[in-house]
TrEMBL record:
The chain crosses the membrane at residues 118-136, 169-190, 337-358. The keyword Transmembrane helix applies. The keyword Transmembrane helix applies. InterPro entries: DUF6754, Ig-like_fold. This is DUF6754 domain-containing protein. Keywords: Membrane, Transmembrane, Transmembrane helix. It comes from candidate division WOR-3 bacterium. Residues 109-356 form the DUF6754 domain. It holds the Pfam family DUF6754.
Length: 381
């Protein structure tokens, strides 16, 4: 009887091996990972779970990790794709141990598609569909409404005013370089201004802070004069490089403004703290000024000192207004449509979340919908 009691006691106090041990290829990854999971173990706090790995089911097991007893999962990131692996879990505590059955074989492999990022694929498909839809409509000649930009409509008025006053025109890209998108977007505007300047026989001055931008500006102005049939009016000395220094460039431009007193000034490019200094100088000589930049910190200064200001993406859309090609027009309309959809989605989520929070338990369904949509729109890492 005593022997039976001792065996029973040992069975009670002995360690329990992990149950329901599984080893599977890690989902939605680039390969090289195997996930091992097991049930929670209610043993002593000082117990640990040792994980062993081998390429054979009976021998060659090597310890790869030691996890606390509270853990139920381990990711083995040191495996080769296509190789079969076997795993064994051992619970250890104060010299005692319990061994779980061997699991395997299991192989790791890379997945072609991360299902956790399905929302990204769906949104990408919708974006492409919107762009293609409007591009095809534009190619078929469908008339589509595009909001007018006051600054672009005022270009002809500004050039006409400078012509009537017999004064030159000044065009500045600011401190932008040729890799800045806003500078690339401003080149078609320079072409339009140069073409009008050639038609009206007005002098066009383009001071630059970057030599590559200066070269691009010279070629743009030269082509515009050729298109207008007035190549004789083109003077490369009017398109010069001043300096790359910020306030050195501002001082040089201000000097040109005070000496030449242009009738129209175009600030289209990338500007920093010098924007207000140059715009105020242009205002002091009575020039009509048109500005456009993507640098939001400088927009208030241009709004205060200039007659017309293109805000944010308006300067990117300028080339589409000047020469509405189907691809550009379709892209512009597609972007506007996607912005509308985005505003509607954000507003709907805000309303759902707010209504669910205000109504309390009565709005549990609204809260669940809000959380489900938010989770779906948040792609997995």
């Amino acid at each position: 009887m005593m022997t039976l009691w001792i065996l029973t006691a040992l069975t009670v106090v002995g360690l329990t091996p992990p149950g329901s041990v599984t080893a599977r290829d890690a989902p939605n990854d680039q390969g090289g990972q195997i996930v091992i999971r097991w049930d929670d173990i209610d043993d002593a706090a000082n117990s640990t779970i040792a994980l062993f790995r081998s390429t054979c089911p009976d021998t060659g097991f090597i310890e790869i990790a030691a996890e606390p007893v509270s853990s139920t999962e381990y990711t083995d990131a040191e495996v080769a794709d296509g190789c079969s692996y076997y795993y064994r879990l051992v619970v250890r505590s104060d010299g005692d141990s319990a061994v779980a059955p061997v699991v395997g074989p299991v192989r790791s492999s890379a997945q072609w598609f991360n299902s956790g990022r399905s929302s990204v694929l769906i949104v990408f498909a919708l974006i492409c569909a919107a762009f293609l839809f409007y591009i095809f409509r534009a190619r078929r000649g469908t008339k589509m409404f595009v909001r007018r930009i006051a600054g672009l409509d005022a270009i002809d008025d500004a050039l006409g005013r400078a012509t009537e006053m017999g004064k030159p025109i000044l065009f500045s890209f600011g401190l932008g370089v040729i890799t800045d998108l806003v500078v690339i977007a401003a080149l078609p505007l320079l072409r339009k201004v140069a073409r009008k300047a050639a038609d009206y026989a007005i002098r066009l001055i383009v001071p630059n802070a970057d030599p590559i931008v200066m070269t691009a500006a010279q070629e743009t102005v030269k082509e515009a004069y050729l298109e207008s049939g007035r190549p004789d009016l083109y003077n490369p000395d009017n398109i010069t490089f001043l300096t790359s220094d910020q306030f050195g460039y501002a001082a040089g431009v201000d000097g040109i403004i005070l000496r030449e007193k242009p009738g129209a000034i175009f600030w289209l490019g990338y500007f920093y703290a010098e924007s207000l200094v140059m715009a105020e100088t242009g205002h002091s000589v009575g020039a009509i000024q048109l500005a456009g930049t993507t640098e939001t910190t400088q927009l208030p200064f241009f709004v205060a000192a200039c007659d017309y200001t293109m805000i944010g993406e308006e300067i990117f859309a300028a080339s589409c207004y000047l020469k509405p090609e189907p691809v550009m027009l379709g892209t512009l309309k597609g972007e506007d449509f996607l912005k509308l959809v985005l505003v509607i989605c954000i507003t709907a989520l805000v309303v759902l979340g707010t209504a669910g929070a205000i109504t309390g338990n009565g709005g549990a369904a609204l809260t669940r919908i809000h959380q489900a949509v938010s989770t779906w729109l948040t792609p997995a890492s």
